[in-house]
Design brief:
alpha/beta, globular
């Protein structure tokens, strides 16, 4: 994969324009301050994201075939993600709650630095349903968020704003973990979150490219990325209010996110736009035992992981 054309071109144009002003090359222009360097969003290697998916599949296989709330597979998944983040230098916090008489956990990871009065969050639910390993739903979102966080550490990225990443428990039981987190925040700390980005099912095998339309600025950021790589998008409606952005939105936090479709059927018009198979669900294995590592479209996962990084880098500078 390569840097997005739009991200690279935007950064280059801004720096070039600022440099031109600084040298007074524009007639009548006064010298300007030195331009501020703009960090281009990095490529997220899809192979790395898929390696995390392989680990989540192995965890499910070793724990009764699933990674559901309150089951050993969920806690093993959380421990895997946490170990990666701890080794990379994140400050991690496990938040415990109870749902359906079982203990559940959220994992929160803060990247040191940045203005903690201006927080940009990216998150995904880590739990599966009990009927399967949950690799597209939602190993894909969880793994892409993890790899984006690890890329922050690997590149030594130091944004102006504070970065926070989250993996939610018990989403499949009604957004329990994310609701618990939002409700646990003081009004002051809620107000510090300038945006929450949600990634739930971003590698569907018959994919569409859907963008949440909740916050205009976040929506535009994602649309700009996809326009830059020549991929058309549609407004996300199938999962509207059904994933972990909903508690944040209800609390007044600007939200956005990406989705590649679940049980709805892809139309002929959408096939013309994106390819794939008309008359078939975006994910035939939604909430089923066949939601394994074989149930992921690499191209969709690749594009969405890079769009995730583009949004995180763009919105945190």
């Amino acid at each position: 994969m390569k840097l997005s054309v739009s991200g690279r071109a935007t950064a280059t144009a801004v720096v070039a324009a600022a440099s031109l002003l600084a040298t007074g090359s524009i007639a009548g222009a006064a010298p300007a301050p030195e331009p501020v360097a703009i960090a281009a969003a990095p490529d997220i290697p899809v192979a790395n994201v898929k390696a995390h998916l392989t680990q989540l599949q192995s965890i499910a296989t070793a724990n009764g075939g699933n990674r559901a709330h309150g089951r050993t597979g969920y806690r093993a998944s959380l421990d895997y993600v946490k170990a990666k983040l701890d080794a990379a230098g994140f400050t991690t916090t496990i938040q415990q709650f109870t749902a359906s008489s079982r203990v559940g956990y959220n994992l929160i990871a803060d990247w040191p630095g940045g203005d903690t009065n201006q927080v940009v969050m990216a998150g995904a639910h880590l739990d599966s349903v009990t009927s399967g390993a949950g690799i597209n739903d939602n190993g894909t979102g969880s793994s892409a968020v993890l790899e984006a966080a690890l890329t922050v550490a690997r590149t030594g990225y130091q944004p102006t704003k504070h970065l926070r990443f989250a993996w939610w428990g018990a989403e499949e039981l009604g957004l329990v973990g994310s609701k618990y987190y939002v409700n646990s925040l003081s009004s002051t700390n809620r107000a510090r979150i300038g945006g929450y980005l949600n990634f739930d099912m971003i590698g569907s095998p018959n994919p569409g490219y859907f963008v949440y339309d909740d916050d205009p600025a976040i929506e535009k950021t994602f649309k700009d990325y996809f326009a830059g790589i020549g991929v058309a998008t549609e407004i996300e409606t199938e999962g509207d209010g059904r994933s972990d952005h909903a508690p944040f939105k209800s609390a007044g936090v600007p939200v956005g996110g990406l989705f590649t479709g679940a049980s709805r059927t892809k139309t002929a018009a959408q096939v013309t736009k994106w390819g794939g198979t008309a008359g078939q669900a975006f994910d035939r294995c939604y909430h089923s035992s066949c939601d394994t590592t074989a149930n992921v479209d690499d191209t969709a996962l690749n594009r969405n992981a890079d769009a995730l990084a583009y949004a995180v880098w763009t919105l945190s500078q």
